[in-house]
Amino acid sequence: MHTIAYVRQVAALRRQLVSASKKHSDEEEIITRYAKLYLGCHFDLIFTLKGMGLLAGRSILCTLFFFILLSEGYFRWVEAQHCVWYSECGESEKVPGKKYNCNYTGPPKPLDSEDYQLLTELCPGYGYGNRSLCCDGAQLRTLKGSLQLPLQFLSRCPACFFNLMNLFCELTCSPHQSQFVNATKFNATTLNTTNVVEVQYYIGQTFTNAMYNACKDVQAPSSNVKALSLLCGKDAKACNATNWIQYMFSIDNGQTPFPIIPIFSDAPVSGYTPMNNKTYDCTEGLEDGSGPCSCQDCTKACGPTPVPPALPPPWTILGIDAMTVIMWISYTAFLLIFIGVVLGAWCYRKRTIMSEYGPILDSNNPLSLNNDNPDQVNASCCETLGERFENALQIVFSSWGSFCVQHPFLVILSSLMVIGASSGGLAYMRITTDPVELWSSPTSQAREEKNYFDSHFGPFFRTAQLIITTPLNDTFLYSPYFGGSDVPFGAILDKNILHQVLDLQLEIESLVATYEGQNVTLKDLCLAPLAPYNDNCTIMSVLNYFQNSHAVLDHMKGDEFYVYADFHSHFLYCVSAPASLNDTTLLHDPCLGTFGGPVFPWLALGGYDDSNFNNATALVITFPLNNYLNDTVRQGKTLAWEKEFIKFMKNFNNPNLTIAFSAERSIEDEIDRESNSDIRTIVISYVIMFVYISLALGHIQSFRRLLVDSKVSLGIAGILIVLSSVSSSLGIFSYAGIPLTLIVIEVIPFLVLAVGVDNIFIIVQTYQRDERMPQEEIHQQIGRILGDVAPSMFLSSFSETVAFFLGALSNMPAVRTFSMFAGLAVFIDFLLQISCFVSLLGLDARRQEGNRLDIICCVKLPEGQETKTDGFLFRFFKKVYAPFILKEWVRPIVVAVFVGMLSFSIAVVNKVEIGLDQKLSMPDDSYVLDYFKNMSKYLHTGAPVYFVVEEGLNYSSPEGQNVVCGGVGCNNDSLVQQVYTASLISNYTSIAYTPSSWLDDYFDWVKPQSTCCRYYNTTGAFCNASVVNPSCVSCRPMTPSGKQRPEGEDFMRFLPMFLSDNPNVKCGKGGHAAYATAVDLYPDNTGVGATYFMTYHTILKDSPDFIDALKMARVLAKNISQSIDHKVFAYSVFYVFYEQYLTIAYDTALNLSVSLASIFVVTTVLLGFELWSAVIVSITIAMILVNMFGVMWLWDISLNAVSLVNLVMSCGISVEFCSHIVRAFSISVKKNRVERAEEALAHMGSSVFSGITLTKFGGILILALSKSQIFQVFYFRMYLAIVLLGATHGLIFLPVLLSYIGPSVNKAKVFAANSRYAGTEREHLLNY
């Protein structure tokens, strides 16, 4: 047993020696343990001999062990010291510019002292005692050159880079090289040396996995991808521990001069012990003081992945929408109470009428529903004040009306002069079509942030974009020659299709536009990030993987039997490493675009699943153009080229390609085209309304008097007055320099026509129904009529004017502009109607009394006896409609129906969608619609988003750096780290990728180990890494302080160099292409001002997506600002358009509430301080507005600035439907509410119906024929709803409501009326 135990101990120690670490401390420890075992054996022998003498055989084992130690241990130790190679020999045959190592099997050689610093730089901690190595200075310099890209991208994570350098240092220089490196192929040179042309490198699987795990999360900030995507030959997702090392050791990467075949195993293989050195995890710091990797570069350092908060569950009751349940219960309760009260009152009246006390329906019984005692006795102070105010208005308007009829030409001439002077401002009219000016307030947060961004970094570039698909459905399989599963390719990636797309792309590049006699090409306008060194245009196209060249696309390697590499293999490589300058296939073509930047596959391809770009069904080609907001000449050239581009694409035809396209100017152009095409529709609509007004105003007594009683000329004059008020309003504001918008031009004529026509019908029809009193002249009659109706007109017009002007307080430019123009137009229209139109009415009345024909007023008919009759509509309302609506059994039904409509609308008001589908703004036949559809269908990435750090942060201090950067030593809540964390839950935050960080790339670029930052020691000027010049020296020394981040003066000294450095093969971290505009330097480079960190939103398809993205970006920016105690904001190009929707619900409620409040106040005053009448008007208008939301939900009309303008307008038009009838009710002196409501409905209802309802109805129906979707949705549907809801509420619900709860009769007004008409022929009319 002892023998077996000893043998096992010896064998175990022998294995340890073979697989020992190459560090001397480990070697000495194992040798010591051998010595102890041998000495133990020796003392055991002495003890045995002196003792029992029974185990003399043990000495034999000790002697045996001694020989084992010598023969198997020492000699193997000596063998472990020999090399596989030393120094460099011949040129590599497979990788030009690289050299083979010389075959050498002798012992390690001491390193020259001048190369000590280089060894320390590359292999810190690997001095190997006496620095006897298997490499010389030339090999170390080659190693440094070959590892420049890994150094620049992986040194962000010290543990990762340490492990990587461990791998290469052991291979290149280790004195124990022969234990894990086996040279398998050689060739002789002419200098009697032998090249090593192939080796096997035995690497421990544990080491391999540990190195990969430490590096797999390291980011490449400038390209928003993981560094392994650039260093593994494939996408980081497909990269693993073994294929990464295989790629680095393959000659296909362009850096390895001969094949190095890695063999992975933790156990000895074929007598070789795999290199299994100590590794560091990315969460560990190094012995030199370097800290652990940042969370961004090491997922394990982040803790648990953030979990987005759960969406709030929908508000339900018993699984049904809560608002629906609440409104059903409320409506049911209302019906029960209302029906109970109605039945109770009916039964009470029935019993009372049948009693011995006689009928008391209109008695003074306080319980009677119809108790309105008109007795003057006990008239209240408010009633008296109201009567006096009413009387004053009547006197003023009567006198003014009489004056206008007496002096018609003076009034008309004065009106024309005022109209002319006001309309003269149209010469200064400016129409705003800029969407930013139209939808975003100059003082809004998004607008201010946009101005800040534009002023510091330049305006966001313009784009022309193609989305290309093919009707061909052929898919094909690509079988890689060197093994691997078949890869399916979509039809759009067929080489013939790609050639056709490249032809198209090259044709677009060669387009020539003309601007003011000058030729304009794409190169004059395009974004060229490396100019002036490289003036190639940025073109985000998959063809840029092939350098936009047919020859490169056709490039292939193969023979007559097989194709080894072609465009398939190049494509697959480039989509995984778009920034590569040399693919790993036999082609060795670059992937980097001709403009010097990468083309990310998620920007150039569409319709793929997950990250399988080979399955793409669409190609996306984007031409970014410089945006010159303040340079009209350059902007004009850009617009001219875009116009030529659009013209070319409209005429382009290829049966194999289906192309959706758009330029920056497309939307604005299509809106203009839409507006022009809709002019015909609008004109037809207004012509129909004009014809109706002209014909309906006349009250034809007989066919013989058709041309006398018609009022075509008066109707045309009334319409011209309406249009004059619109032109006057536009002119006055144009004098003030306020620009118009398309909404103003399209909506205000409709609004003013509604208001103006209603007033015209009221004046004319009241005159037609009036009987002239004895000894009353025509001017007195018209004056008296104006005194009766003008207060009602004044009430409605002034209410609307105040409501609109208060609406101008809105922050939304479209709403504010509309409200200002509309308020002034309505008020001017009222002034012209009570002056110019009244004068014209007087002239027309004289013409009619003189039996002169309408229009041809010089022709006179002979006198004839005609009986004056009421118009058909008036008779219908008086005899049929009003009595029916106010029947005892009809009224409860009306209330039930309208309250039901209200309940439904309240239940769905919170379900109206917010936003504006951009497709609605386009005509039905617009090419942009196809682009929008394809953009939603195929694109996988949203708009860029910039996190802007305002000036004032000190980037030269460690504290200022740590709150922003994302690398080692940066704060866990830094800007980059928070955006990175947000990208992990992109479904919630809409942040798609890790942000590009100029600061982190600058730190990597300036490191002394890198060859990026160099300058001429003679001039101090920057020296690019590609320059070979002995006077170029590293920016920072290889000292402990030099390896730290630059601070103070050093930071600002080298930053301008970084921002001017173009990326190249030897330095991929140059910041010119990626960050030239990201850093706003102070004059003379004295400091850093504002900067930005860019990432992308996820794909955003509709308004809710855009709104949520804006909301979440602002939340994130606010959190960052609080964390770093400095102002940071998020900016994307679409924020200015969608910001309005963050507050649209609040703005809508505020605007409509302010309008309602103003209507309530004005109505209270102008109705003679009748508070209850104003309440009823306000309630009815509020019901109309709420019902409008119900219609919007039913008809898929979203809430946005356009619909808000229409809602504000509907508030004004609703006044016309309600105020006239309420005022007629309030001045009626009938005995009870039912009779007063019937009188008001009969007299005013017919004018309202013929004036607004019928006039608008015909014109609105024509809008349904418009090609414009925005017209169909926001004008036809909403206008129709406004008119129908206004008419039904004003002519059905309001009279019924007044019959139930209308204000009591004003006793003072009754007494005044009785006194005024006592003894006249009109006295009998009081009891109508």
Automatic annotation (TrEMBL):
UniProt keywords, alphabetically: Cholesterol metabolism, Disulfide bond, Glycoprotein, Lipid metabolism, Lipid transport, Membrane, Signal, Steroid metabolism, Sterol metabolism, Transmembrane, Transmembrane helix, Transport
Location (main, coarse): membrane
Gene3D superfamilies named among the record's database cross-references: Multidrug efflux transporter AcrB transmembrane domain (1.20.1640.10)
One annotated GO biological process: blood circulation
Cellular location(s): Endomembrane system
Domain called SSD: residue spans: 678-843
GO MF annotation, one: lipid transporter activity
Keyword Signal listed: yes
SUPFAM superfamilies associated with the record: Multidrug efflux transporter AcrB transmembrane domain (SSF82866)
Gene Ontology CC entries for this record: endomembrane system; plasma membrane
Ranges annotated as spanning the membrane: 325-348, 409-429, 683-700, 712-736, 742-764, 821-843, 889-909, 1149-1167, 1174-1195, 1201-1219, 1240-1266, 1278-1301
Membrane topology: Multi-pass membrane protein
Catalytic activity: cholesterol(in) = cholesterol(out)
InterPro entries: HMGCR/SNAP/NPC1-like_SSD, NPC1-like, NPC1_MLD, NPC1_N, SSD
Family: Belongs to the patched family.
The protein's name in its UniProt record: Niemann-Pick disease, type C1
